[in-house]
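Hi all, posting the design record for the shared folder.

TITLE: backbone redesign
STEP: 1 of 1
STRUCTURE INPUT:
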């Protein structure tokens, strides 16, 4: 049996951008994460937002990843 891995160094959050999709708000949210020493994010995908504007949604997701 393999020994258990120690993942205690991972500090993560689930990020839901909601209606705040502008760059200034995103950078402010990520600055909070930095101060809290968050080192992992899970992006909360919203199907309704995606269906309304698939290309815009992927642009927003790409921007989120590059800003992180």
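Okay, here is what came back for every position:
SEQUENCE:
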């Amino acid at each position: 049996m393999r020994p258990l891995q120690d993942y205690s160094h991972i500090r993560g959050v689930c990020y839901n951008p909601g209606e705040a999709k502008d760059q200034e708000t995103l950078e402010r949210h990520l600055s909070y994460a930095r101060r809290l020493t968050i080192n992992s994010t899970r992006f909360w995908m919203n199907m309704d937002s995606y269906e309304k504007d698939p290309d815009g949604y992927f642009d927003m997701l790409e921007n989120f990843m590059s800003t992180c």
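COMMENT: The chain has a mean pLDDT of 89.
Let me know if anyone wants the other runs.
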